[in-house]
Each structure stands twice: as C-alpha cells, then as structure tokens.
Write a structure and sequence with these properties.
Mean pLDDT: 90
Radius of gyration: 15 Å
Strand order of the largest sheet: 1-2-3-4-5-7-6
Strand content: 25-35%
Low-confidence stretches: 1-9
CATH architecture: 3-Layer(aba) Sandwich
Order of helices and strands: EHHEEEHEHEE
Length: 159
C-alpha cells in the first residue's frame, strides 16, 4: 500500500490501533469531526475498554487525523460502525476508505456475518463512501433514530 500524505505537511498517515494514551487526542478529534454531538471522554474510554481491537486511528506523528470505531456482538453475528471521522484538512483523500477497508478485513477475519451503520441522510459523501464499499441502505430514512430531529439512514453489508 502506498503512503498517504497530507498536502501541507507531507507527513505519512500511519494506520494503527488506538492506545490508552490516545484517548485525550481521540476525544479532541471526535469533537472536531462531530461538533454537534461528540462522544464524551468517558464513553470513548469505555468503548476503548470494550472494543480495543476495533478502534483504529490515522496518526501523522503529531496528531490524530482520523478514526474508525466498531462494536461487535459477543457471538460475532454482527458489528456496528459506531464512528468514522476524518479531520477537515484530510477529507476527500481516501482515508475513510482506508480505515473502513482495514476494519472490514479484521471483521471478516474473526467471522463477523454482517456490518451495520447509520448515517445522516444529508451526508451524501459518507453515503457514497459506504455504497462504494458495498453497503446497501435499508428501506427509507429512520425518523428520530437518535431522537427528535436526528433522522438516520441505516446501511448494511453482508460479509
């Protein structure tokens, strides 16, 4: 795989598992990517404790530039993409695909049967990314999925 570079810093983005030492930086990244409703630190902490093998980050050596977080059922029948985020300065460079392809490879490797995710119906770039990875939208938009005014499209991939 070729190294991914930023245009400004020309730093290689290394894909790696998150560490406990990354939790503060991960919290800041999540706040930047999802300013309306970021995960609180304690939730990211608990998700790290529960799903450490499926929390991957892109690191340029100075800061985290992206992450993917997956929760998997104990019987490995299904997994949910709980978060995928890339900093604004690194979007549209294939980093979301890179993170998703790696985590999907890992999920296949442990025998997960299907992967689900939700996405805002207005987020056409994310929907296109997921469709390019063979996710298919379930019928219609789920109104109020995350509460009032928080509609979501549920997408599914059979592995």
């Amino acid at each position: 795989m070729t190294a991914l570079h930023t245009h400004r810093t020309a730093r290689r983005l290394r894909l790696r598992g998150v560490t406990e030492a990354d939790l503060d930086a991960l919290t800041l990244l999540d706040r930047e990517v999802f300013p309306e409703e970021p995960y609180p630190y304690f939730v990211l902490r608990q998700l790290f404790d529960v799903y450490p093998d499926h929390l991957l980050v892109l690191d340029d050596g100075i800061a985290l530039k992206g992450y993917v977080l997956v929760g998997t059922a104990p019987d490995k029948s299904r997994s949910w993409i709980l978060g995928l985020g890339i900093t604004r300065d690194e979007r549209r460079r294939g980093h979301g695909s890179r993170l998703m392809l790696e985590v999907l490879k890992r999920l296949r490797g442990i025998g997960v049967g299907e992967v689900l995710l939700t996405v805002s119906p207005a987020n056409t770039a994310a929907i296109q990314l997921y469709e390019n990875l063979d996710f298919a939208a379930e019928k219609g938009v789920r109104k109020g999925y995350f509460g009032p005014e928080a509609d979501r499209l549920v997408m599914r991939l059979q592995l």
